[in-house]
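Quick check before the chapter quiz. The format below is the same one you will see on the exam, so make sure you can read both the input and the output lines.
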Amino acid sequence: MTETTHPEVEIAADTKKTLDIQEIQRILPHRYPFLLIDRVVDMVRRERIVAIKNVTINEPFFQGHFPNMPVMPGVLIVEAIAQAGGALLLTEVEDRDQKLMVFTGIERARFRRMVTPGDQLRIEVEVKSWRMNAVRMEGRVFVGDKRVAEAMVTCRLIPRNREAAGEGGEAAPEPEG
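Here is the expected output.
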């Protein structure tokens, strides 16, 4: 059974388990230098996703974080968790070209090891609760078998245009979970 969620992307909803970079770019609005996942290696619809980010010295943030000791900023690791979760969740949204998934909360973020050029991040995200327009996800990030970071994130789906979103863009209630 194939479900069409976007005119350009057909996803076999019950069987598709991987996404290459072109498929990710059809789902997520992020682009260089802010697209922080390179490949999806496993996906279970509405439940979990595992994505990969290859960290290279060519990342623009390494110029200033830190000179002579490049370390990936923790906030970007948390953003990679959200992007992986967004890749999973936005496959369920038919009009995703008209929507954005935005952070509404970050809890229990922990950074256990430095991420440096040459590392490959394995980003594992599990959906904890899902409402029509809001989600709560737990993310864990590994380099090899070592956990480097974790965080609980909440996100909300909003219209892309300001008129539909309303001025001020009030925060959605957190999903229960």
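If your answer matched, good. Residues 55 and 117 are 5 Å apart (CA to CA).
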